[in-house]
Amino acid sequence: MDDPAEPRADRHPPVGGGPDGTGGRPATTVGEPGRPPSIDALARSLAGTGLPHPVLVEVAREAVAAGDAASAAARADERSRRLLRPVVNATGVLLHTNMGRAPLGHTQPEGYTNLELDLTSGERGSRHDHVGALLATACGAQAAIVVNNGAAAVLLALAALARDRDVVVSRGELVEIGGGFRIPEVMATSGCRLVEVGTTNRTRLADVRAAVDAPQADVAVLLKVHQSNYRITGFTEAVGVAELAAVGPPVVVDLGSGLLDAACPWLADGPPAWLRSEPAVRQTLAAGADLVVISGDKLLGGPQAGVIAGSPELVARCAAHPLARALRPGGLVLGALQEVALAYLRRDAGALPFWRMATLDTDTLQRRAQTIVDSLATAAPAPTTDRAAEVVRCASVTGGGTLPGIEIPSVGVAVPGDRRTILRSGRPPIVARVEDGRTVCDLRTVDPAHDEALVDALARALADPGGS
Hints:
The protein has 468 residues and is an alpha/beta fold. The protein has 16 helices and 15 strands. Helices cover 33% and strands 15% of the residues. 40% of the residues are buried.
């Protein structure tokens, strides 16, 4: 049988511009010694990768240009691995930014939707009406709109309410989150003027009042930003939302992490201990905030989106601003977010993968881990003691710029050495972490449907003689 990596010259028609398809020269094949291989033949030999032929042609050209035609297969595999694909998150980081933050499973039938169609009147409607109203109900707001991410929500709110005017914010809340998102830079982009008050660790109500009452002051908004990815402890003081609401100008709170309600009515047992100090949208609005801004793909457990909720008048001003069109999400995002909002209103945490994973009890995880280890003992070829898998206690985190320093007890499976590369090379790729010289697969972030794939991948990793 012919080797598919070394096709015969007569397997494919010649290519080129001459009568024989090569500009007057015979077509060169992949394996012809001393001559560059045919780009087309080399590309066709990689058809089993599933990549489109034009992409394989690029890969073949790169390999030939490098003088290493034999590397084409590896290059095609690398190109394939750069495409979006499902992965198994065994890191224990529930909202892993590199893996899309909140896990989400949303499917939508092909066809049209009433994205901007009022089915009652038959007239043009607004894409803000569907999920915005549901989210407003879920968090106790009077109105809400959705944009394409949390940073966009902050940008739009400030641009709509405070362009060319002052925005007062504590120095201790001028945060930077992952990806270089800095509050001062977003504020500058919105066109408002930043007025810093207080110090890094202590800001008092008197500082805010002084800024509002200062000569020439033109304060449009008091901005409060949740320190969602770090903690300031010790000699500290901050101004609460209720205190800010009594000053006068509208209060906009960037909660970022997106907990809808501190009572967690969607959880049968109420809020877990690790959420005890996390501020939530409903309580923040009740305390007097005029607008609250959150991300959709953090504790909300939805797709990447930004939500602006609160006063109908201020939400309407945001929706009417020209930036709202540029920052609006598409129908797929709104459809996914609608399913998330409906799950909250049904109090159905089981329909939200983030909450399902985050609230798993350790006994359940322990049983799954033991089953995986027992399966490996059967599947692996007589592993020695120093190459065996074991059940380990570990700690998960929420991640995604939320709940810094908070750990959630968990259980995982550990194997000796650093096996991350071979785990990532599988189908599906499995992403794990290394602790104390062992590769740990934290089961809190692994869907039980992927346990069998995890067994297969760990068996391959243990059998690999090159594993460290």
